[in-house]
Amino acid sequence: MPEQFDAAYWESRYADHAGHHHSEPNPHLVRQVAGLSPGTALDAGCGEGGSVLWLAESGWRVTGVDVSATALGRARQHAEGLGDEAAERIDLLEADLTTWEPPQARFDLVTAHYVHPGGPAEALVQRLATAVVPGGVLLVVDHGPGDEHPHADTPVEALAAALDARDWTVEVAEVRSREHGDGPHGHRRTLRDSVLVARRHRVAASTVSAVPR
Prior knowledge:
alpha/beta; Rossmann fold
């Protein structure tokens, strides 16, 4: 992982911006979840838990994973402000997504928003994909081209191509624009996000082809 994005970097960033990263859930997540029944979810790179809390309040059993102990500590504090029923649906885990291997075929929804682990982004997509149950959904949101971010260099088409077409249907692989209100002097600005939504086949074609006839 580049030095500026290692665990020490994120610890320093959260320490210097207390409460800055706990906000509304990712809008692409809200849009995607609207058509899904609550189940189990994994938020990889959950930060202070904005999306984790929103999913739990929406009825999901959520596991949030992040490399920053400081961010996870704040996520736990935020969770305490929920009702007991929603808070009990949240699990938080400290792990480095550069090397972390998620549990296999465990979650109905796996999502990651603006995650910057070391190594190719395609490799992260492939590892996270292994955690999705048959019939489940993978949602990856990254900085889009022209977003003036150093990690906006992997085309969303390349992320989609990292998934085995025998096992996955790519439902969305596009760049979307959205308005964001943290520009200079509170002015809104337009951001561009790369959005990948893919659904795992209920029966993998590779598995079917391996069945003796």
